[in-house]
Structures are given as C-alpha cells and as structure tokens.
Amino acid sequence: MSVTRSLTVDDFARPNAAYAVWEVTRHCDQPCQHCGSRAGPRLADELDTDAALGVVEALARLGCRECALIGGEAYLRADLPVLIEALVARGVRAVMQTGGRGLTAKRVARLKNAGLDGIGVSIDGLEDSHDQLRGNRGSWAAAWKAAERVRAAGLVLTVNSQINRLNLHQLPELARGLRAQGVQAWQVQLTVPMGRAADRPEWIMQPWQIPDVLETLAAIQREAIEEHEGDGPVFNVMPNNNIGYFGPHEELLRSVPGGISTHWQGCRAGINVLSVEADGIVKACPSLPTADYAGANVKDLALDEIWRTSDNVRFARDRAPGSELWGYCKTCYYGETCQAGCSWTAHCILGRRGNNPWCTHRATQLRREGKRERLVQVERAPQTFYDRGRFEIVVEPWSDEPSDALPRRLPVL
Q1: Is 18 helix (H, G, I), strand (E, B) or coil?
Q2: What is the rounded CA–CA span in Å between residue 123 and residue 93?
Q3: So what's the pLDDT on residue 3?
Q4: Beta strands in 133-234 (DSSP E)
Q5: Contact 105/142 with Cβ under 8 angstroms?
Q6: What phi and psi, each to the nearest 5 degrees, are found at residue 393?
Q7: H helices of 115-157, where?
Q8: What whole-number distance in Å separates Cα of residue 86 and Cα of residue 288?
Q9: Distance between CA atoms of 3 and 243, rounded to whole angstroms?
Q10: How many of the other CB atoms lie within 10 Å of CB of 104?
Q11: Whose CA is closest to 111, among 95, 91, 123, 99?
C-alpha cells in the first residue's frame, strides 16, 4: 500500500478512515510486469464525475485526512483536477502516485494548481531492473525526469520502490541517487505475487532473504542520518506494511528520524485505511485481492455505510488478537501484536491471513535452528484484476547457496 506520510499516534486511537487510496482509473500507459491490478485499458464501468464527487463527500464524512490518487495512471483521468479541487475544498490532503512516463511539466502544473500537495514517483531500482519490471525501455529515464519536474514545481517529492530479486543488490546506489535528487521520503515494499507479479515467481524474495533486506535498509537509513546536513528533514526510509517484523532494526525503520519511536502494530486495513477501485468497489486496503476482499460498490451503497457494515472491510477491526494466527505465527512471541504482519502479503502467498513467512524475526529464529523456509508456487493466478496464485512453504536445512531456492515457475495454462 502506498503511503506518503507517517501515521500519527492519534491515527491509531480509534477506527477512522484517516487515509484513503483511490484508484481513479485502471487506464495505464505502461505494461508493468509486476502490476498487481493488471492495469491497462480503461474499464468500461469506471465511476463518472458525479459518482466520483460522491466518493469525495463520503471521504470527508468519514474524517479522511489524506487521499492518495492512483491508477493505472491517475493523470490519464481527464477530470482529475476536479477531484483534487473537491478533496482539498473539504480539507483532505491530496497526493498522487505515478510511474511518471507521461507526467509532463504541464500536467504537474495543472495538478498543483488544483491543489495537489505531493507526488510519489515509482522507481524500482537502477535502469536495467526498472525497465525490465516496467516492461518498456526508457521508463527509468522518464521516471527520473518526472521526479525532477515534481521537485521543480515545489511539490512534496517522494519515491516508491518495490524490492525483489532483480534489484535487491541495487538499493544502496539507488538510495544515494534519491538523496541527491532531493527526495524526502523513500517508501519501500516487497514485490508480492499478485497480478502480473504472480506470473513471475522467480522475481519474488524468499523468506530467508528478508533479514538481508532489512540489514540493507537499516544501513541506508543510518548513512542518511550520519551524513545529513542543514535544518531540513532527514531522508526517511519508510518500510511498507510488508517489510519487517520485530528484527533488530524495527524501531529504526518504523520511526521517522528525529520523531517518536514506534514499531509494527498490526495491519491497519479497514481500521485507519480504506480504498476505492476504479469501478467503485470498496476494500479495506488497495492491495488486497479483490475476489477475496471486495466489500460493496459505491454505486449500490454509500461509502461510509460500506465502511461501517462490510465484514470484508471490517476484518482487522473486528478480529480478536491472535484469533487468526496459524502455522509458525501462532507460536510467535509477537503474534498478538503483529497479527501475522501484512494481510495482503500473507493471503497472496498462502491463500489466507494469519501466517506470514516474510518476517525478519521468523527467518532469524529459524536460521538459529539451522533451518530456512522456501516458497514453491503450487497454483497459478487466474489472470483477472487483482488476482493471486498460491504458494506452499518448504522447510529445509539452512544453506548459504541460493541456487536451490529459486521458485518454480508453473507452465502457462
């Protein structure tokens, strides 16, 4: 899930849709090979302007403080400035996430004039890996140019990166480039096998590699703190909901440099977060597989009513601590606090919530026992929007040799 600010203590005090992620269109101008929604052409039944403005009104009623506009590519929606103006008029901070291929200076100016406050540009590694992931050459160069335009316009510039086996080794160099570009916050997440990424299991991180990811990110954050000069904000490495949990760098990476120390406190989907898809389907989190987590549609029921009544939207709000845990997570010391980490990640890997092999603490403990976990794909994704396949966990003796850990890629049906 894309977030451009850190949730405050107050955000955790009570259920309130403080943060919304709104897929305003599924139309996209890039064939990204790791796209979770399988975005491409515009949907025939996307919300029209009147229905979209109704969503804005409902978000305001729910007390939404910030709305991230995504796609597809949000800027391909013609009435996007109208929606931004409506959000801002109702006291909702509007930001946008983009791949940046067609983010011209004219578009940036138009969105800024409408009241957009910040833009997050997706940059997934250095040029070779980024362009491979995005499915077209020149995507990396376009994304960097977009970032320059955002900064030149005076908007808050953040960058989002997915971490996978193509780009893990590039993270330190990428981070230094982002700092030089004036990026304020770098949000990172693991590539999850959903959508087109589910078709490329060889790109997906293995559980035993997760501690190395956290060591790398912690080193990057420490370097940024040590080399920081001036009175401005420190470059902030922001691990997304599926990176962690409870390893030696938990507080360093969960806390904003110089801010309140914090740690992972469980999935916030449907507690402080909600999402709306391009056709009006409401979910607790934009990343959750739609077939398993669709609440209702704003065309049929008001958004605030869906928020209050949908079991699929309320699942994290209503569950008792530890009630869903199974497998290794059921035995974990941190289980009732962690709740098996990111619901999206756990479900997309194993087909249900409550057990999450992508865990720093878990991988570290297993290594101490001379073991590691390996993911093997046993079910392909059905090739629908926001779809998933399924993996099984193989527990094997620890080995420093990575060659035997490559996920098996199922044949195309």
Answers
A1: coil
A2: 23
A3: 34
A4: 156-163, 185-190
A5: no
A6: -95, 130
A7: 127-134, 139-152
A8: 27
A9: 14
A10: 12
A11: 95
Measure the CA–CA gap between 159 and 137, rounded to whole angstroms.
20
How far is the first Cα of the chain from the last one, in angstroms, to the nearest whole number? Answer: 30
Residue length, the chain? 413
**pLDDT tens across 117-176, in order?**
999 999 999 999 999 999 999 999 999 999 999 999 999 999 999 999 999 999 999 999
Task: Determine contact, residues 266/316, Cβ cutoff 8 Å.
Answer: yes
Residue 220 confidence (pLDDT): 97
Where the chain has pLDDT below 50, the residues are 1-14, 403-413
Q: What is the spatial distance between Cα 385 and Cα 42, in angstroms, rounded to a whole number?
A: 12
What is the pLDDT at residue 262?
93
Quote the pTM value.
0.92
The kind and range of the H/E element at 197 are none
* Distance from chain centroid for Cα 267: 12
∠ CA 331-333-334 to the nearest 5 degrees?
110
Q: Please state, in angstroms and rounded to a whole number, the distance separating the CA atoms of residues 368 and 211.
A: 13
**Local structure of residue 269 (DSSP, 8 states):** B
379-382 LR contacts (CB < 8 Å, sep 24+): 379/351, 379/410, 380/198, 380/199, 380/410, 380/413, 381/193, 381/194, 381/195, 381/198, 381/199
